[in-house]
Fold each of these.
Amino acid sequence: MSILTYKIKHNRDFTEELRKATHIANYSLKHRKCRTTKEVKYIGLKACISNQILKKYGSNKKLKKVSKVKLTINGYFIQADKEKREISIPALKLKLPYLFNNNFIKINQVEIDNKYVYVSAEISDKSEIKVENYIGVDRNTTGHAAVVGIPTTGKVYKLGKKAFHIHRKYKKIREHLQKKNAKKQLKKIRRREKNIIRDINHKMSNKIVKIALENSCGIKLENLKGIRNNNKSKKWVKKNKSGESFKSSINTWEFYQLQSMIEYKSKICGVPVLYIDPHYTSQRCSKCGLIGIRNGKKFSCPHCGHVDHADANAGFVIALASPVISKSNDQSLIDRDVSEGSTDTPLLETQRLMEAVA
Ligand SMILES: [Zn+2]
C-alpha cells in the first residue's frame, strides 16, 4: 500500500476558515489535554475539521509554535465520485473535479490551504516482479545528475543534465541577491530553484523506473544512508579517484528526494530496489572489477584496457555490485514526499507510468 498526494487548486477563499483553524491550533497547544470539539465549538469551525486539528496539535509534544495551519478533513467525511471524477467535501460545501488516475482504493484525508487542496489517496502496490538482472543508477554532482547503466544490453542513459545548469544559473542569481541583501527575493529564488529540481527529480525517477520495467530489471542504487545522519552539513562528500574528497555543491535533499521518488514509484510498480556499498564505485572497472583510473569524466583500466565514460562505468559497476542492504521499506521517505505537497504535472506523469504498467 502506498499513499500519493495530489494537489488541486480550489479557487475559493478560505481565509476565514484558516484563521479559525489557527485559533484552534493555538488553543490546542495551550491546553494540551483538550481533545473535545465542544470546547472549541465557539470558534465556529465544523467539528470534523476542528477535531483533526486538535488531534494533530494536541498530540505533538514537540510542537512549540503554530504555523501554516491547514484545514484537515478525514477521508470519512469526503466523498469521491469516480464516474464524475469529482471529490466532494460537504463540510466546506466544496466540490472538486480531479484529473488523477481512478485506481485509488480510497481517499485518506485532504488538507487545504488558501490555494490548494492536498488529496492523500491510498493506492495498492503491484506485487514485486521477479528479476534476474539490475540496472545501476549513479548519482552525480556534476554533469548529468543520474547515469543509468544496463549491463544486459550495454545501454547507458544520461539523465538530468539540466539540474547542473540550473544550479549554476541560480547560484549566480543568489550571489547577486546576497550582495544586495535582498532576503525576501532570495527566499523566493531558493523556492523556485527547489521546485525546478523537484520537477527534474520527478522526470528522472519516472524514467528510471520505466527503464527498469522495459528491461525486466530491478534497480540498484548506492547506499547513501550515512548522509542522513550527517544532514547538518547539507553536503554530500564523495571520494574521487585519488581518494581526496570534494564537497558537492548539491544539497543532500536532492539525492534523497530522487531516491525516495525512485523508491515509492518502484514500490507502486512492483520493481525491486537494492542498495550497494558506495565505496570505490567510481574507481572500479565494470569489465574486470579491478581498480582503474578515473580522470574527470574519463575512466580507463590499466588491467584489462577497458575505456569508458566514468559515469557510465560507475552505472555498470553499481548494477553488477552485490547488494548490502535490501529495499528499505522506509515509510518516512514516502511521508516526506507527501508532506512537501506534490505538484500536479509530475504526478500525472507517475500516473501514466502506472497505467503503462497495469
Ligand atoms: Zn578492467
Amino acid sequence: MAWSLTVGYVYGTAVRIHVTFLLFLAWIWVAYYQRGGAGAAWDGVAFVALLFLCVLLHEFGHIFAARRYGVKTPEVTLWPFGGIARLERIPEKPSEELVVALAGPAVNVVIAAVLLLLLGGNVGMEHIESIENPQVSLLAKLAAANIFLVVFNLIPAFPMDGGRVLRALLAMRMSHAQATQTAASIGQGLAIGLGVLGIFGNPMLIIIAVFVFLAASGEAGQVQMKQVAQGLLVEDAMITQFETLGPTASVGDAAEALIRTTQKEFPIVDGAVHLRGVLTRDAMIRALQAQGPGASVLEAMAEVPTVGTRTPLDRALALITQRGAPVVGVVDSGGRLVGLLSPENVGEMMMLRAAQPDARFGPWAKRSPPARPVA
Ligand SMILES: [Zn+2]
C-alpha cells in the first residue's frame, strides 16, 4: 500500500504505519506544545503512541485468533482513526467469527485490568474527562482509554467488532447472509439513533453515525455479491473472447493491441496455449517509458493465478481479492488457457443477474438455477 511505511514483521504479518498517522503525531506534539511547552508535548506524543500500541495489540488479538483457524493476515496498518488488519478472509463458521471478533476487545480488557492492578484500582470515570490534562498520570489515562476501546468496539454495528459478534450470534440460528442482513439493519438503526443524539448533543456523533450507516450497507452488499456467486462456476462468468500475445511479442506489439481492442490485460501464451503471464495496461506503459517499444512482454508481464473452468465462482473471486491479481487465467483440463476472469466482468454478470434473477440468458441457462436458501 502506498503512503505507509513497513516498520517490521510479526509472525509473517507486516506492521505498517500510514503517513497520516505520523502527521497526526506531529499535530499532537504542536497542540500540546502550545498548551504546556515541550514537556507537555512529549507527554502527549508518548500517550498517543502508547494508545496506538494498545490498538495494535488489539488488532493482533484478531490476527492470532484468526491464525488458529488457518486464516493468515498479510498486513496491519495504523491510521489516525485506528488499526486495520487485512485478514485473508473472515471465518464463516459463526463460532469462529465470534472468537476472532472478541479476541481484539479481550486484549484491551487484559491491558486495562493489568493497568488497574498496577494503579491499585483507584481510577474512575473522572479520568476520562481529564484525558486532555497532561497532569493526570499516563497509566491512568491509558487504562481509561482501553476501557473506552472495549466499549466502543463492542457497539453492535459494522465495522465495529460488536457488529461481527452480533452477526456471529445471529448466524447460529439463521443463514450467514440473513444474519448479515439483520445485523446490518440493527447497525443502521443504531446509526440513525446516534445521528439523532448528535443533532442534540455532540456533532462528532453525526460523523460516526454516517460512517456506521455506510459501513453496514457495504457489508450487506458484499455478502449479497458472494451469495449471487454461490452455485455458479468460473465458466459461467469468464471472458472467452480476447486477444493473446506470443512470448516473442514486444511491448510495442502489445501497445498496438491495446489500441485495437477494448482489452486492458493481455495474456501471454506459448505455442501450447499455456499461460505464461498477463501484461496489464499499467505495466505496458511503465515498460514503454523505461525501455521503449522493443522491450519483451515476458519481462514486463506479471504472473497471475489460474483456476479450472469448473472452479466455484466464489472461490475464484476470493483468489482475486486475496492475491490482488488484475485477472485470473482459466485453464481447461489440459492446462490450455480458455478464459479470463476479471473483477469487472464478474461485476457485470452480477448486475445482470440482480436485474433478472430468473432470466435464462448466458451460459448458466444450460443448468438448473442454483439452490436458494428457503426463507
Ligand atoms: Zn477489533
